[in-house]
Specification:
Radius of gyration of chain A: 83 Å
Strand order of the largest sheet of chain A: 1-2-3-5-4
Oligomer: heterodimer
Strand content of chain B: 5-15%
Number of helices of chain A: 14
Helix content of chain B: 55-70%
Helix content of chain A: 40-55%
Number of strands of chain B: 2
Largest interface: A-B, 43 and 42 residues
Radius of gyration of chain B: 20 Å
Distance between the termini of chain B: 49 Å
Number of helices of chain B: 3
Chain lengths: 452, 80
């Protein structure tokens, strides 16, 4: 060959790549080493370097494979890799294309567990302040688990034995396998939507760490943490601890224990009720007997026991006063009566009877004297009167008429003069033994000096 | 609150409260007697509720939110 033919870089690289491809040893290689320069691309591809003390080799794990990893690779980790070695034509570098990556030494699930635990702890999801109180006497209890298997049986029989009062509502979920975590999340959501649940038990029976893995999944942990009802976790056996246990409001070592934590024991409750009842009885009895004693004490107190002693002094005082009153009343009465008697005596002594008697005598004597004097006077007057009558009789004009004199009246007037008479009227002429009725014929007037 | 609508939780809490009040001591007689009556009533309510819960209600809520009775596998196990 005289003429030298030049290869393109691309052709050379292709050639080398073909060598790699052809070698069956490089198609499926198991290699172990330490991770460094781990870069997780947003697409999900992981770029890293796998190295040991002397050598290093670039490596990549594409998103399709990386998705199946339980843990997150970090620099410094020792890992076991399975994959193939090939050439990246763009840079002409050979590199390791990892299909599977596992932690060397400690299990990958353990690392994944630790990583999620650390992450959620940082977010504060395990804080005791987040824990909800488990109600003492739940009325409705939710159970999120598989409807077959030991866990549901243990929970149901334990609750039935301890507290048949509560209603149990089972929200079936797959608790194992690839669909388990989303299934548990759905069941948890349904349980939260169900009205009136007081508490919810989430769990399953024992198994390998892979079997229990759903309870270490982040979606399950977050669903439990965000639950609005208190959650008791019950995963596997006592020695198994899952992320669900950390975020739950209460961790039960087993499903049976979860049921015991969820409900009180009715036998203990009955005992407690009985003891409360007897406590109430004894306390009220004590209060009653105390009050009874108090009443008795008050009743037997001196003034109440001998009530007459209360008013005896008053009775005595009253008696004394009424005696005094009677006595002094009598004295006053006696004094008054004595005075009355004296006054009466004085009055008797002063009796006007004798005076009256004396005056009576005087009156009598005066009467006698008056009678005598009057009689004498009457006699004297009688004498005087009869002498006057005799005198008067001697002077009586009618006596003169015996001797022939008469009296002439006109109009009951004595006619003394011719001038006094009315010639037209009659004259009454009184005589010694009667009256003459006369009329006047004429009047003869007497001249002076002429006697009749 | 009548006997029927009070929950066991409320009833037992009230019962405990009555015991607590009586334990304080300085309860007037009238109050003590009414507490006593109430306490006796509550203790029998609690007792009856526990005793009368003979059969537990256990049901499955399926994906559609429908409720159906849960058949315990216990019997099957026992028959094995």
């Amino acid at each position: 060959m005289t003429t030298t033919s030049y290869l393109t870089v691309k052709a050379l690289t292709k050639y080398i790549k073909r060598k790699f491809d052809a070698d069956p040893h490089l198609r499926n290689v198991y290699v172990k080493g330490e991770l460094s320069n781990v870069k997780i691309h947003s697409s999900g591809h992981i770029y890293f370097t796998i190295k040991d003390d002397q050598t290093r080799m670039p490596a990549v794990m594409f998103a399709a494979q990386a998705r199946n990893m339980k843990f997150r690779p970090e620099s410094g980790m020792n890992v076991l890799l399975q994959g193939d070695v090939n050439v990246y034509e763009g840079s002409g570098q050979y590199q390791f294309y990892a299909q599977v990556m596992q932690p060397d030494g400690i299990g990958e699930l353990y690392i994944a567990f630790e990583q999620l635990k650390e992450k959620l702890a940082k977010e504060g999801l395990f804080q005791p302040s987040r824990k909800k109180q488990i109600p003492k006497y739940p009325q409705k209890i939710g159970v999120v688990t598989a409807t077959t298997g030991a866990a549901i049986r243990d929970i149901v029989t334990t609750i039935s034995r301890r507290y048949p009062l509560a209603e149990v509502l089972i929200f079936p979920a797959l608790v194992q396998g690839s669909g388990a975590a989303p299934s548990i999340v759905r069941a948890l959501k349904r349980s939260q939507e169900h009205p009136g649940l007081d508490v919810c038990i989430v769990g399953r029976g024992g198994g390998s760490i892979e079997d229990l893995w759903a309870f270490n999944e982040e979606i399950v942990a977050r669903e439990i943490a965000n639950s609005n009802i208190p959650i008791i976790s019950a995963v596997g056996h006592e020695t198994d601890t899952t992320i669900a246990d950390f975020v739950a409001d209460l961790r039960a070592p087993t499903p049976t224990a979860a049921a015991e934590l969820a409900v009180p024991n009715q036998l203990e409750l009955l005992e407690r009720i009985a003891s409360r009842k007897s406590q109430i009885v004894s306390m009220v009895t004590a209060i009653l007997s105390h009050e009874r004693k108090r009443l008795h004490r008050v009743k037997s107190a001196y003034p109440l026991a001998y009530p007459e002693r209360l008013y005896r002094p008053f009775v005595e005082k009253l008696t004394r006063l009424s005696e005094q009153f009677e006595k002094s009343g009598r004295t006053i009465l006696d004094q008054k009566q004595e005075r009355h008697r004296q006054q009466k005596m004085r009055l008797t002594l002063q009796n006007p009877y004798r005076t009256v008697h004396q005056y009576q005598k005087e009156v009598n004597s005066y009467e006698t004297r008056l009678q005598i004097a009057t009689e004498k006077n009457i006699q004297a007057k009688g004498h005087s009167f009869s002498s006057k009558i005799q005198l008067l009789e001697a002077l009586n004009p009618l006596k003169i008429m015996d001797r022939g004199y008469s009296i002439t009246y006109q109009n009951d007037q004595v006619v003394k003069s011719v001038y006094d008479v009315d010639v037209n009227k009659p004259l009454h002429i009184k005589l010694q033994d009667g009256v003459l009725l006369a009329s006047i014929d004429s009047i003869n007037k007497q001249s002076k000096g002429e006697s009749s | 609150m009548t006997k029927n609508n009070v929950s066991f939780d409320q009833a037992i809490q009230q019962l405990e409260e009555i015991v607590r009040k009586l334990e304080q001591g300085d309860v007037p007689l009238e109050d003590a007697i009414s507490l006593y009556k109430k306490g006796m009533e509550l203790s029998s309510v609690c007792h009856d509720k526990l005793q009368n819960a003979e059969k537990q209600l256990i049901s499955i809520i399926d994906d559609n939110g429908e409720k159906k009775p849960f058949e315990s596998t216990e019997k099957e196990d026992a028959s094995k």
